[in-house]
Structures are given as C-alpha cells and as structure tokens.
Amino acid sequence: MSTAARLFHSKSDQTLYDRITPSTDQFATQQARWNDLADFLKSRMKDDTGYPISTWLQGSYKFDTQIRPLTTGAQFDIDLGLYFEWAGSDDDGDYDPEGFKELIQNALLDYADDEDNDASRVEEPKERCCRIAFNPDFHIDVPCYHLDRTKDRRALATESKGWEASDPKAIYVWFKDLHDDKTIRAQLRRLVCYFKMWAALKIEDEASRPSSITLTVLVAEALSEIDLSETSDDDDVLEGIITIIADRLDDDTEVANPIDNDEDLNRLSDEANDNLRARLREFEDTARRANAATSEATAAEIWTEAFEHFFPMPEDVEGEANANTAARSDIAKNHALVAYSFDPEIHVRAWSQNNENYERFGVNELPTILKDCSIDFTLVNATSLPVGASVRWTVRNRGHEAWTKNDIGHCSGDGYEVSEHSAYNGNHAMDLTVYQWGRIIGRRRIEINVRGTALAARQLPAKRRFRR
Fold it and tell me: Which of 77, 254, 312, 364 has a CA positioned 20 to 30 A from the CA of residue 143?
C-alpha cells in the first residue's frame, strides 16, 4: 500500500527524485560545457587527422539517469564519445588506438589552458577514455571510437588492449524503445536513479558496487515484469523491483547485455555479489516496512534508512500544499495519525565564533540566524528514554546555496548531543528520530532558517593611553 508516493515524486521540488538529481542550473551548466567541448574536439580532430568526426553523448547523462554526487567536492560524470569515421577494419586507420587517445589527450590539455573554459584539470589517460574536469562539480570522460558508418559498426580505442568491440548507441536505443508510454519511460528513469543512489549510499567501495549500466539493465528488465495496472506509485513499484532483482541474483548473478547476450555486465567478484545480495534483502525489508506504515511521516523515517538525508520528510514537500486550505487540512490529518510514545525535547543554541555577543536559543525551535554560526542540539529529556532506545539525527538542507554545492545534508550522529554549522542561506532542518528495538517511538524537527552574511570578527576598542 502506497504511503509515501508524493515524497518520491510529485510537483514539489523537494522530492527524493529532485534531491538526488542535478538541478536545472547544474544541468544547463553541464550542457553548455559539453556542447562547447564537442565543437572544439570535432574541429581539432578533423584538422589533426583529416577524418570525418562525430560525437555521441552516452552513459547516465544520455539515459537521463544522472544522480548527484554523495558529498560536496565530488563530481557529476558525463561521457562524450568521439568517433573517427572510415570504411574498413579498425586497423585500417592512420593511428593505433593509443595514438588516437594521445591526440585527444593533447587536445584536452590545450582546451584546459584557455581560462575561459573553466576547466580545472586534465587527468592522466585512463584505459578507455581521457578525462577533463570542470568547475564547479563535474568531469567529462572522452572515449574515442572507430565508426564504420556503412556497416554501423563501432570499436573503442583502449590504452593497452587495442580495439575493443563496443556500441553505446545500441544499448541506449534498447533502453529508449522498451516502453512507448512516456509516463512509464519517465518512471523507469526515476527508478534507475533511486537504485543508483541506494547503491552509492550502501556499498561504499566503488569496486564492489554494480556498474551504472548493470543497475540500469536490472531495473529496466524488472519493471517489465510488473503489472502497472495494479500498482503504479513509485514506492510500491520500487518494492516490487527490489524483490524481483534480489530473487534474480539469488538464482544467477549473470546480467546479460541485452544487445549481446554473450557479455555479462556483472563483473563483481563472488564476495561483492554476496554483499550485494545481502544489501538487497535489507533494502527489500526497508521497502516492505515503509509501505506497510500507517502514516506518511513514519514511512518517510523508514525510507530514510535506505536513502539517508536524501529522502525528504512530509514537511519538506508541503511548500506547494500549504498554499491551499484543503491541502493543509489533509496534512494535519496525516500528522494526527502518528501516535508516538516519546516526545523529544531539544534545546538549541546558535552562536557566532566571531562575535561573543551573538547568541540565539530555543527549545524545539530556533529564531532565524546568520551564516557561519555553530549550532548545538541537546536532547534534554534523554534520561526519560525507555530501555532499548536509540536516536538518529539527520540534517536536511534546502535552498540554492546548499544544492549548488551538492550539500543536501548528512546523518549527524546518534548521541544525545550534536553540533552543526550554518554554512548556507536557506530553510534547513535538523530531524531527530527516536527508536526502541528498531521501532520508531518519537520524532522532532527543528527548522533552521539562515539569512544574511556571517558576522565580522568583533573589533575590540583601542586602549586609551593617559599621560602622567
């Protein structure tokens, strides 16, 4: 039974989908830069080699399944394929694969030397691509290919393994043509994003994590097994997909490439596959408990176990709803259904390290504060917690400043006191969840509204000097 569907995807800009995907501004910045880089490389490579040159976006950006980096300072990934066109075999070209990659590497270095291009660095060549990074938060990988247009055949240039059969266009066409219904196609893309973010959060070692294309194929094929006439909300469908994928991998870990059944997309070790299956069953349990919850707020707290600070609370998506009385009434009724047995009481203190005179206090709330304040949260009635109780503090950031830095929040700790910092303007929140033996028995949200700039360091008056 769907209880938190609108928190996954709705008109609000604070849904799970919005919190895990690039903002409109970030998408526009990426688009402008890859367009410019593509034009530069096509012109430069044609001049350098004389071959007709074309480009093809591929990977998550092309599939529209790109997710945010987990932390500030990490980067979005874009794949821009560069194609050298000639008829005939791969070895008929004027350069070997390493030679083509060297041409691209040198071109990227020249591109980065132009300060107007906002490039922060060019990395050493990788086995299957060259990489250029851009301010503030993304990089573009440039794999290069031989394209025989007459045979519609492609081969990837590698650093040490020669030419490698590879056709990124074919798998994109497969994905795009799975569903004629635009609504289902959009839902599939969202579901892939949910799965990718879950994997990034719960499998920290990237080498032990399924690749993006592996997860994409698993989710796409699982969705085809679900009767969407029976259930169509994202939370219900996600639960079904988790179970289908977990059952599939329990039977066989192979994930065949849908356009080349001889290729196994799942290249994880046996140990990594065992870990993936275990994590999937945990994900399945989370989904079942969340979808069985009797209130949206409780469901959101349970989904937070899987998606951490990226998952919104009902208060986060109520911006549009609060505009009308009927919606406010529905929200109030929903919240009234939650009967928690423990009522957390939180003392909040915000203070400026630069000016000892600036200090704000509150109990279960805090007045608007300035940037660059330290904020201390204390559960003052912790001694009243029942046996077996535990707590979880979660920061959820909102607003342009935080999202531009990809700082959507974080898990703040599990003690009775935590400290934070007001780094961004915006309406943020600290959420405390109280558990007993794994069951939610209480919750409290503290709204943290930050406005204005940080206080300047206090200047002490000069000492007065007296003549004797």
Answer: 254
User: Omega before 136 cis (within 30°)?
Assistant: yes
Q: Which residues contact 152 (CB under 8 A, 6 or more apart)?
A: none
pLDDT confidence of residue 137: 87
Question: How many residues does this entry show for the chain?
Answer: 468
What is the bridge-based pairing of β-strands 153-157 and 417-421?
Answer: unpaired
Tens of pLDDT, residues 366-397: 999 999 999 999 999 999 999 999 999 999 99
CA atoms within 13 A on the CB side of 360: 17
Locate 278 and state its tokens. 């275990």
More confident residue, 289 or 456: 289
Q: Give the integer Cα–Cα distance in Å for 89 and 74.
A: 39
Position 452 confidence tier, pLDDT thresholds 50, 70, 90: confident
Q: What secondary structure letter does DSSP report for 65?
A: -
Give 273's pLDDT tier (boundaries 50, 70, 90).
very high
The distance from CA 37 to its chain's CA centroid, rounded to whole angstroms, is 25
**Does the domain at residues 346-450 carry the CATH identifier 1.10.8?**
no
Domain boundaries, the chain: 24-171, 178-292, 346-450
CATH of domain 24-171: 3.30.460.90
